[in-house]
Amino acid sequence: MGHDHSHAHGITATGRHRKRLLAVLGITLGVVVIQIVGSVLSGSLSLLADAGHMLSDAAGVTIALLATWIAGRPASDQRTYGYQRAEVLAALANALVLIVIAVVIFTEAVRRFGAPPEVQTGIMLFAAILGAVANLVSLLILRGAQEESLNVRGAYLEVLGDLLGSAAVIVAALVIMLTGFEAADTIASVLIALLILPRAWSLLRDVVDVLLEASPKGVEVQMIREHILSVDGVTDVHDIHIWTITSGVPVFSAHVVVEDGVLNARGADQLLDKLISCLGSHFDTDHCTFQLEPASHSEHETHQHA
């Protein structure tokens, strides 16, 4: 016997924050244009690296926005969860793009170490300050939503890295202005590349966890088992599965062994309500499926999982 508390596949976590992402996308693209022009005029590699980093961020936000549209398409017989996993695939693409950008920046920086070109520090400093202010505004826009969605979190981490990258460019410009040490620009480029990689790895790791259907962070299967066993009439629970379809959409299923006398129409209904309430209140899991089994049938069950 199965019971699904919530069959609706509503708006995803990223979709709820589409306006925030659009605002950040507009700000980011504006800063990219300013930094590219500033890099051409000043000859700064670090400014160009920061522009490339921000361009990759803009691409990531664009992918996330497209994914929210795709994820909102209705479920079908062929895709019973709809297209909600599109958001996770977008986050995967985002992480891979970040890694490629980091490698390209690092390679170019190493190439220029031997002969750093002369840099127009005034233009470099002005463009970097504009980038830092814009990144700070974007961080404030995304801060309240980054815990709910992998894609919003990815955008938040990228903007945070951009802010640090802009700070590195500002420092490099000041060092060149005060000391004439032109290599500071190239060193800042390397730092920006190194800032990108840990963020890309963190996002990639979270995406892989979702694709491998790992238990959501902070959820302990043993604790869930104990809560289910505490419900009156339950004697055992097995074949527990809990995974994530996409950000903010955890799913749970289990085989629940109950006393034979509970499995009348009224008793089963009341038991399912208690189980669903338990999962929803303690573990924030609304999409639950339970197979109820009488204790007398347990000897016929082969327990394949926890």
What labels describe this entry?
Alpha-lytic protease prodomain-like, 8 helices, mainly alpha, 10% strand, Alpha-Beta Plaits, 2 domains, disordered N terminus, single chain
Strand content bin:
5-15%
State the end-to-end CA separation: 19 Å
Provide the number of structural domains. 2
Named CATH topology of the largest domain: Alpha-lytic protease prodomain-like
User: How many helical elements?
Assistant: 8
Report the CATH superfamily of the largest domain.
Cation efflux protein transmembrane domain
Seen as an oligomer or otherwise, the chain set is single chain
Average pLDDT for all residues: 78
Topology:
Blueprint: H1 18-42, H2 45-71, H3 86-112, H4 121-142, H5 150-179, H6 183-211, H7 221-229, E1 234-246, E2 249-258, H8 265-283, E3 287-294
Parallel strand pairs: 2-3
Antiparallel strand pairs: 1-2
Question: How would you sum up this structure, described in words?
Answer:
This protein is mainly α and 306 residues long. The chain has two domains: 15-211, Cation efflux protein transmembrane domain (Alpha-lytic protease prodomain-like); 221-300, 2-Layer Sandwich (Alpha-Beta Plaits). Helices cover 61% and strands 10% of the residues. It has eight helices and three strands; from the N terminus they run αααααααββαβ. The protein has helices at residues 18-42, 45-71, 86-112, 121-142, 150-179, 183-211, 221-229, 265-283; strands at residues 234-246, 249-258, 287-294. A three-stranded mixed beta sheet has the order 1-2-3. The longest helix is centred in the middle third of the chain and has 30 residues, at 150-179. It is elongated, with a radius of gyration of 25 Å. It starts with 17 loop residues before the first helix and ends in a 12-residue tail after the last strand. The model is unreliable at 1-10 (pLDDT under 50).
